[in-house]
């Protein structure tokens, strides 16, 4: 019945937009603490260095997350936040808007909506233990300042890399990477 | 003598080894030994890994912390990104038993367990709070008098403030005090606390926008008469140093403003030569700076 549907927010739909009341709960569970407390003052958007030069609007992201508008996960601007945390430090409701954005990115990643640039960094860590691995020019520069060619990290002790991959495997990230790499080829 | 396991991260050892070398050498003057930290990896990069999966990010960070726990050593590091990953993982897992349980369940797959038995410190925190500006000043052999320094704190050193120990992220002073202890002048400039633009995975996702933020910072620093930018984060360092080359190519703006990590500036003040500080590995020449102070 239509009236019951309106009372049950899970069935709420306006035009083509679906409203998912679980989205904001998921955001809070993934670290976006107190995200439901947002009263839309806009301090976040006003403080955002990226918002001044792009389409990223933190207040809009917060509103969409609270309304359960899952299309926020498809917005390429979601990935423009530099995670500077200025909005979070200035929020009068003490909401970690940056962490809410990170939580939304986590959900988008599970839906394989993560940019390939992120997947590439995972690939580098998976292979070498480093997001930014060493190279030959740098090895020479290391020696010049009296350091060994490779740092005493996984570069010197690659036997530790298998533990990193195990963590990627059990958290499901390895599978996401493999599938997205296969699809992009 | 206080010993720390020296967590290197990626960009210092793999792009700017002078930052790594200068941290070790300058710390010895204060009886601090930064020892090899065997088997450490990427922190992992908070912008990329935190964005993909916060639990994987915490677990990979905790793996690094666990390695140090096994050796009973506190961790010192020189990068704000590493600081975000490891300080927050350490802090949150100590404070939140449910989160610790969740992460330890992941770590059980590699037979690791987070104990919460060590501290994670940024070297700038150790220099300010343990060594102190007075002792830093006493170590100076070549005072950097007349040098105008544009300090870049970097975001993740200070923010989020509820997850840090430095207090206000709007008008901090401790880094300025450490620069002034070397005889240099910390200049004020517009939007001093603004981000470098590189974080959150943005530099690899949309470089033009990341550089547009850096360009604004560089412009503001230049307008205020900066001779040098000083940072405490190799990723900000890369964005502001190599970024100047990219900004010149993409937007045609030229600054030629040298960029130093604080440990390199401290090394210069302690009388080390530019070669041992790895300054020749920088994209932007430090010659004008050397001419001014030596």
Briefly characterize the structure.
The complex is a heterodimer of chains A (185) and B (294). With 185 residues, chain A is an all-alpha fold.
Could you characterize what this model shows?
The complex is a heterodimer of chains A (185) and B (294). Chain A is an all-alpha fold and 185 residues long. Chain A has two domains: 2-110, Alpha-helical ferredoxin (Fumarate Reductase Iron-sulfur Protein, Chain B, domain 2, Orthogonal Bundle), CATH 1.10.1060.10; 116-184, no CATH class. Chain A is built from ten helices and two strands; from the N terminus they run αββααααααααα. In chain A, strands 1-2 form a two-stranded antiparallel ribbon. In chain A, a hairpin with a 2-residue loop joins β1 and β2 (17-18). Chain A is globular and about 60 Å long. The model of chain A is unreliable at 1-5 (pLDDT under 50). Chain B has 15 helices and eight strands. Chain B has helices spanning 11-15, 17-28, 46-52, 54-71, 80-95, 97-107, 123-131, 133-138, 155-158, 174-180, 202-205, 207-223, 234-251, 262-269, 287-293; strands at 2-7, 32-35, 75-77, 120-122, 148-152, 185-186, 228-231, 259-261. Chain B has a four-stranded parallel β-sheet. In chain B, β7, α13 (234-251) and β8 (259-261) form a beta-alpha-beta unit. Chain B is globular, with a radius of gyration of 19 Å. The model of chain B has no long low-confidence stretch (mean pLDDT 97).
Looking at the structure, what is the overall shape of chain B? globular
Low-confidence stretches of chain B: none
Radius of gyration of chain B: 19 Å
Q: How are strands sequenced across the largest beta sheet of chain B? A: 2-1-3-4
Q: If you consult CATH, what is the topology of the largest domain in chain A?
A: Fumarate Reductase Iron-sulfur Protein, Chain B, domain 2
- The parts of chain A where pLDDT drops under 50 for at least 5 residues are 1-5
Total helical segments of chain A: 10
Distance between the termini of chain A: 47 Å
Q: What structural class should be given to the helix and strand makeup of chain B? A: alpha/beta
Distance between the termini of chain B: 31 Å
- The percent range for strand residues of chain A is under 5%
Could you spell the SSE succession of chain A in H and E letters? HEEHHHHHHHHH
Question: What global shape of chain A is seen?
Answer: globular
């Amino acid at each position: 019945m239509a009236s019951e549907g309106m009372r049950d927010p899970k069935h709420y739909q306006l035009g083509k937009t679906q409203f998912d009341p679980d989205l904001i709960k998921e955001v809070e569970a993934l670290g976006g603490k107190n995200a439901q407390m947002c009263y839309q003052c806009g301090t976040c958007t006003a403080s955002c260095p990226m918002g001044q030069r792009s389409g990223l609007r933190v207040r809009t992201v917060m509103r969409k997350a609270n309304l359960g508008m899952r299309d926020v996960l498809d917005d390429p601007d979601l990935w423009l936040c530099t995670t500077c945390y200025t909005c979070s430090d200035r929020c009068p409701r003490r909401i970690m808007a940056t962490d809410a954005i990170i939580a939304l990115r986590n959900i988008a990643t599970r839906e394989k909506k993560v940019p390939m640039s992120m997947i590439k960094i995972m690939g580098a860590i998976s292979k070498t233990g480093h997001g930014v691995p060493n190279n030959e020019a740098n090895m020479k520069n290391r020696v010049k300042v009296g350091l060994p060619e490779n740092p005493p990290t996984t570069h010197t002790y690659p036997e530790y890399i298998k533990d990193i991959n195990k963590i990627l495997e059990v958290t499901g990230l390895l599978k996401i990477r493999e599938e997205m790499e296969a699809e992009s080829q | 003598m206080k010993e720390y396991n020296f967590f290197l991260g990626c960009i210092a050892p793999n792009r700017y080894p002078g930052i790594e070398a200068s941290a070790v050498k300058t710390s010895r003057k204060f009886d601090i030994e930064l020892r090899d930290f065997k088997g450490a990896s990427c922190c992992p990069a908070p912008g990329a890994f935190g964005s993909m999966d916060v639990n994987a990010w915490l677990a990979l960070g905790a793996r690094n912390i666990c390695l140090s726990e096994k050796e009973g050593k506190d961790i010192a590091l020189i990068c704000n990104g590493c600081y975000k990953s490891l300080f927050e993982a350490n802090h949150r897992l100590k404070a939140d038993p449910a989160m610790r349980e969740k992460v330890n369940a992941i770590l059980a797959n590699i037979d690791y367990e987070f104990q919460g038995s060590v501290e994670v410190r940024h070297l700038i925190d150790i220099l300010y709070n343990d060594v102190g500006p007075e002792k830093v000043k006493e170590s100076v052999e070549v005072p950097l008098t007349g040098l105008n320094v544009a300090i870049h704190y970097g975001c993740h050193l200070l923010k989020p403030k509820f997850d840090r120990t430095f207090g206000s992220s709007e008008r901090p002073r401790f880094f300025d005090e450490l620069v002034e202890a070397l005889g240099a002048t910390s200049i004020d400039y517009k939007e001093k606390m603004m981000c470098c633009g590189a974080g959150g995975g943005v530099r690899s996702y949309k470089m033009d926008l990341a550089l547009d933020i850096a360009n604004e910072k560089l412009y503001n620093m230049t307008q205020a008469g900066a001779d040098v930018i000083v940072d405490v984060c190799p990723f900000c360092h890369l964005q502001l140093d190599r970024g100047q080359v990219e900004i010149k190519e993409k937007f045609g703006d030229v600054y030629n403003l040298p960029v130093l990590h604080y440990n390199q500036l401290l090394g210069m003040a302690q009388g080390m030569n530019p070669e041992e500080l790895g300054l020749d590995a920088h994209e932007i020449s430090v010659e004008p700076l050397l001419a001014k102070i030596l």
